[in-house]
Amino acid sequence: MMSRNGKACFCMERLERIATHKLGPVRLKAVSERGQLPGASVFHVTVPPRSRHDMILHRRTREWFMVVKGRGRGIIGGRRVTFRPGVIVFMPPGVPHQMITDSVAMEAVVIFSPPLKLSGRGMDVHRA
User: Fold this and answer.
1) How far is it between the farthest Cα atoms of the chain?
2) Do residues 45 and 26 lie in contact, with contact meaning Cβ atoms separated by under 8 Å?
3) Is the dihedral of CA 23, 29, 34, 35 positive or negative?
4) What is the average pLDDT value for the chain, to the nearest integer?
5) Does residue 18 carry a pLDDT above 90?
6) CB 75 within 8 A of CB 83
C-alpha cells in the first residue's frame, strides 16, 4: 500500500476480515495484497476436520508450506507425509499433492512464487 507521497506505508489487517476463497474443502485467505511482495503471494490456509482435497498440482508456481496449527497427513510427489506444527514443505512446480485431516483442522501459511492465480485465465490449480 502506498501513501499519498508515494512511499510505502505500514499495513495491518485482521485475519477474520480477509475474504475467504474456497478450493474444495480448503479455505484460503490471501494475506498479501497485489504489489506488496512482487513475485509472490501469501495465503493463510485452513483444511477443516475430516477433509480431503483432490490430488492437485501447480504447473508454474513453487509452493512453500508451513503448518502452524493442527495436524493431518498427505501425499506429496507419491510420498506419504505427516503434517504437524513446525513442518515445512517446499514443492517445485508439477509436484502432485493432497492433504487429509482427521478430527482436527490444520492451518498453514503458504507462499507461492510466482503469485498463485486461483481462477480465470492463467489459473494454476490443476487436478493431478
Assistant:
1) 51
2) yes
3) negative
4) 89
5) no
6) no
